[in-house]
Write a structure and sequence with these properties.
This protein has 427 residues and is mostly helical. Helix content is 80%, strand content 0%. Helix 6 packs antiparallel against helix 9, helix 8 runs antiparallel to helix 16 and helix 11 runs antiparallel to helix 16. The chain is globular, with a radius of gyration of 22 Å.
C-alpha cells in the first residue's frame, strides 16, 4: 500500500469514534472520572462516621479520645496541603488523584489490624492526609477545565454526590458495626480502591506547567507559579474568611463529626441510631447543596456564603443552649438540622470562590495554601471541642465549644458580606 494511502487510512482510523464502554465514558467524562470516585469515597467515609466515637469508648478514651479521632485526620490534611499544592503544579494533578485513593484504601484497611488506640490515630491521620490530596487535586482539575459560570454547579455537584454517598454509608456502617466495630473500615478500604479505577482510566492531566513541558514550550506567564502571583488582597481576604468559616463548620464530617460524638455521650445512642441520624441529614443536604450551585452561578457566590454562615451560627448557638440546659434529644436534633442545612448550603461555595480568584498558572500552589488554611480551621473545630471537654467538666465544656464555634461562623459571614467583592463575572 502506498505511503499516502497508509496515512489516509491511519487518519480515518483515528477519526473513528470510540465504541462501547469507552464511548460512553468519553461522553460522560466528568461523571466517570470525578463524580463516581466522589460518591465512592463519600460512601466509604460514611461507613465509619457512626463508629468513631464508639471506638473511643471501646478503648476507654472517653470524649477526649472521640475528639482526637476527629482531629487527627484533619491534622493530616493540614500537614499535606502545601506539599500537595506544590506537587500539583510540578508533576500534575492526575498522579496525585491516583496515589491518594490508593493511600486511602491502605490506611482504612490498616485499622483492621490496629492493636492500640494510638495505632488507630496514626492510620486515621494518614487517611486524612490522603483525603486532602484527593480533594485538592479534583478541585484543581475542575478549576482548570470548567468555565467560570459553571464552576459553582460543578463543585457543588461533587459535594452533592459525596453527600449521596453519606446517605448509604452511615446507616450501613452503623448496622455492620453491630457485628464488629471495625468492619466499616474494611468497606471503606474496598470503596477507596474502586475509586482508583476511573481516575486511572479517564482522568486527563490539566496542569499548565506539565502540559507546556510535554509540548516542549519554554515557561511563560501562564505557567508562572511564583508567590508574587498568589498574594493579592482578594486572596488574603478569602483565606481569612475560609479559616473562620471552617472553624464553624469543621465538625460536620459526613453529617456527623463532633455532633455524633456529643449525641453518643449525652444520650447514649448506639451505632445504628447515630448512623440513621447522619443518613437523614445526608438526604436533606443533597438538594440544598445542588440548589446552592445554581444560585452561585446565577446570582453570585456571596448569595450562599453570607446567609449560610449566619444560619450556621444560629445552629451552633442552639446546640450550645441544648448542652447548657441538658435538653432532650428532640432539641439536639433541631440544632443538628440547622447546622447541617447551613453546611449543605455552604458546601462548595468557598471552593468556588477560591477557583475564581486563583491565578491560572499557580492554582496548585493557591489551593495548597487555601486548603492548609481551610484544614487548619477545620482542625480547630474538633480541637476546640476536645480542649473544652477536657478542661471543663460536664455540660459546660460542650457549651463553651459550641458557642465558640458560633462566633467564628458569624465572623465569616460578616467578612465575606462586607469586605470581599463578588467574584462572579456575568456576560
Amino acid at each position: 500500500m502506498p505511503p499516502d494511502e497508509q496515512e489516509a487510512l491511519a487518519s480515518t482510523d483515528e477519526a473513528k469514534p470510540a465504541t462501547g464502554m469507552r464511548r460512553w465514558a468519553e461522553r460522560n467524562e466528568t461523571l466517570v472520572s470525578l463524580l463516581l470516585p466522589a460518591f465512592l469515597l463519600g460512601t466509604g467515609r460514611g461507613f465509619i462516621v457512626p463508629v468513631l466515637p464508639l471506638l473511643a469508648i471501646d478503648f476507654g478514651a472517653g470524649a477526649t479520645g472521640a475528639g482526637l479521632l476527629l482531629f487527627v485526620p484533619m491534622l493530616g490534611g493540614v500537614i499535606v496541603s502545601l506539599p500537595t499544592g506544590y506537587l500539583m503544579d510540578r508533576i500534575g494533578r492526575r498522579k496525585l488523584l491516583i496515589a491518594s485513593t490508593l493511600i486511602l484504601s491502605a490506611s482504612a484497611l490498616l485499622v483492621l489490624r490496629a492493636s492500640s488506640f494510638t495505632e488507630i490515630l496514626v492510620y486515621l491521620g494518614i487517611n486524612g492526609l490522603a483525603q486532602q490530596m484527593w480533594q485538592m487535586a479534583r478541585l484543581t482539575v475542575i478549576a482548570d477545565s470548567s468555565a467560570q459560570n459553571r464552576r459553582g454547579r460543578m463543585i457543588t455537584g461533587m459535594a452533592g454526590v459525596n453527600r449521596a454517598g453519606t446517605l448509604l454509608g452511615p446507616l450501613a456502617g452503623g448496622a455492620i458495626a453491630l457485628v464488629d466495630l471495625r468492619l466499616p473500615f474494611l468497606l471503606f478500604g474496598i470503596f477507596a480502591l474502586l475509586a482508583t479505577v476511573p481516575s486511572y482510566l479517564f482522568i486527563r492531566e490539566t496542569a499548565p506547567a506539565v502540559l507546556a513541558r510535554r509540548r516542549g514550550e519554554a515557561p511563560g506567564k501562564e505557567t508562572d507559579i511564583s508567590w508574587a502571583r498568589l498574594i493579592t488582597r482578594p486572596v488574603v481576604v478569602l483565606f481569612t474568611a475560609q479559616f473562620m468559616a471552617n472553624v464553624g463548620r469543621g465538625g460536620v464530617q459526613g453529617q456527623g463529626g463532633i455532633y455524633v460524638a456529643y449525641a453518643a455521650f449525652a444520650y447514649g445512642l448506639d451505632s445504628l441510631a447515630l448512623g440513621s441520624l447522619s443518613s437523614a441529614m445526608g438526604i436533606v443536604g443533597i438538594p440544598v447543596t445542588l440548589m446552592a450551585g445554581q444560585i452561585m452561578d446565577r446570582f453570585g457566590r456571596k448569595r450562599t456564603i453570607v446567609p449560610a454562615s449566619a444560619l450556621l451560627a444560629v445552629g451552633l448557638y442552639t446546640m450550645g443552649g441544648v448542652a447548657w440546659g441538658e435538653l432532650g434529644l428532640p432539641f439536639f436534633i433541631l440544632g443538628f438540622i440547622l447546622i447541617n442545612l447551613a453546611v449543605s448550603f455552604m458546601a462548595g461555595s468557598m471552593q468556588t470562590l477560591g477557583s475564581d480568584v486563583a491565578p491560572a498558572g499557580a492554582r496548585g500552589k493557591f489551593f495548597g495554601v487555601n486548603r492548609l488554611i481551610a484544614e487548619a480551621g477545620s482542625a480547630t473545630n474538633p480541637g476546640i471541642f476536645t480542649l473544652s471537654v477536657a478542661l471543663i467538666a460536664g455540660a459546660g465544656g460542650f457549651t463553651v465549644a459550641f458557642m465558640s464555634m458560633g462566633g467564628f461562623a458569624i465572623a465569616a459571614s460578616l467578612l465575606v458580606g462586607l469586605v470581599l467583592r463578588e467574584t462572579l463575572r456575568k456576560g
